[in-house]
Specification:
CATH topology of the largest domain: Aspartate Aminotransferase, domain 2
Order of helices and strands: HEEEHHEHEHEHEEEHEHEEHHHHEHEEEH
Helix content: 40-55%
Largest sheet: 7 strands, mixed
Structural class: alpha/beta
Oligomer: single chain
Strand content: 15-25%
Length: about 400
């Protein structure tokens, strides 16, 4: 196919996306970060815009990406080892900073070992390639992240070896486990810790209570996996996320350094045997360069901060601001989904109103995400707000006042 023909075919597909309302808008370009001042949190400059913006759409829950200690750690590691590894990890691409981060994150989540990846997305794909097989049955939450679903597809999980339970429905989870075929040796129950579009969490304690009852039924047992990318660092008494909040730890934890910790990269944490199997069998680990030493040093520093007095203070302010915003929405009569997490959805339930409200907030210097059909079902149109640790009481009051005017 010539380039012209390829372009023509792709233009037709892009038009379909546009006509169906699924096309992404042009990407806004951030040009500058402005530190907190005068009782307000950080602001950002966008290309083509004179005003500065408050981000209520950032995953950087602990507001660490501009922390001076992270920047200094990244700078020091870069001067020591360079900007890139020069090879995959099997071919002398492993640096001391990779090992230090793996040991640090394993301790942080309470596991024997960990292996770092370029993202949580590639972590999910790598895990599926490692622990999947013809005699493995997968059971997942209806609202699991795309990376979990894609991981199972990449691993070639047969249609008959999958079960999907209604969102957070424990009775339906049990039905899925009861329906597993007799030829199955291992069952993997996998779920998000925090469901990123809703801000609610998986009841890990209840999930493990059910899976424990089935562990002897299968030769390879029942393996529980949580992708806690939005949870880790963002909530729980010490920032350990959904497992800490629920009081139970699954067999395997997948997470990211790119959200609460403000850096880049993902990880798989579990037993030393699981992690060695990942090292040997996960294509998304074996055949690609690792994180830079700068990313690793910054992420390790972020974990150290999270475990310090400063980290607990940031986590406490994050809780307070989240509570302030959630209570403000309730007071104004807006509909939301309850939960302890700083992802706070506002259910508008109308496409036109959602777009109008997002535009109105943008005009006032507030960045927020609107989710409409067909991304979400008709009637579930939502605005997703994300509270960060550097947000101040005044910041939240500004947003609530704008929402009050709009209402």
């Amino acid at each position: 196919m010539t380039r012209t023909k390829l372009d023509q075919a792709l233009l037709a597909e892009l038009k379909i996306l546009q006509d169906e309302g699924r096309a992404k808008p042009p990407e806004r370009i951030i040009t500058a970060y402005h530190p907190p001042e005068n009782g307000l949190g950080p602001r950002y400059s966008l290309k083509g815009e004179e005003r500065r913006f408050l981000r209520m759409n950032s995953n950087s829950y602990l507001s660490l990406s501009n922390h001076r200690q992270l920047i200094a750690a990244a700078d020091s590691a870069t001067h020591a080892c360079g900007v890139g590894p020069g090879a995959v990890r099997f071919i002398d691409g492993t640096f001391s900073y990779h090992i230090a981060l793996e040991e640090r994150i394993a301790r942080f989540v309470g596991k024997g070992a960990a292996k770092i990846f370029n993202s949580a997305y590639t972590s999910n794909c790598g895990l599926a390639l490692t622990i999947g097989g013809k005699a493995t049955h997968w059971v997942g939450d209806q609202l699991n992240h795309n990376s979990i679903i894609r991981g199972m597809r990449i691993a070639g999980v047969p249609r008959g070896n999958k079960g999907i339970y209604a969102h957070n429905d424990m009775d339906d989870l049990q039905k899925c486990l009861d329906a597993v075929g007799e030829n199955i040796e291992r069952v993997v129950v996998i779920f998000d810790g925090i469901f990123s579009m809703r801000g609610d969490y998986a009841p890990i304690d209840k999930i493990l209570e059910i899976t424990d009852r089935y562990s002897e039924k299968f030769v390879g047992g029942v393996v529980t996996v949580v992708d806690d990318s939005h949870g880790i660092g963002a909530y729980g008494a010490t920032g350990r996320g959904t497992p800490e909040f629920c009081g139970r730890i699954p067999d395997i934890i997948i997470g990211t350094f790119g959200k609460a910790f403000g850096v880049n990269g993902g990880f798989i944490a579990g037993s030393s045997t699981v992690v060695e199997a990942v090292r040997q069998m996960a294509d998304t680990y074996i055949y690609t360069n690792p994180l830079s030493v700068a990313d690793c040093a910054a992420a390790t520093t972020a974990l150290d901060i999270c475990d310090s007095a400063e980290g607990l203070q940031r986590l406490d302010n994050l809780r307070q601001r989240t509570r302030q915003f959630r209570e403000g929405l309730d007071r104004l009569g807006f509909e939301s989904i309850p939960g302890p997490h700083p992802v706070v959805p506002l259910l508008v339930r109308d496409t036109v109103k959602t777009h109008a409200l997002v535009k109105r907030l943008f005009s006032a210097g507030i960045l927020v995400v609107g989710l409409t059909f067909p991304v979400v079902p008709k009637g579930d149109e939502t605005m997703r707000f994300q509270v960060n640790a550097d947000h101040t009481e005044a910041d939240i009051d500004i947003v609530l006042a704008l929402l009050a005017q709009a209402k």
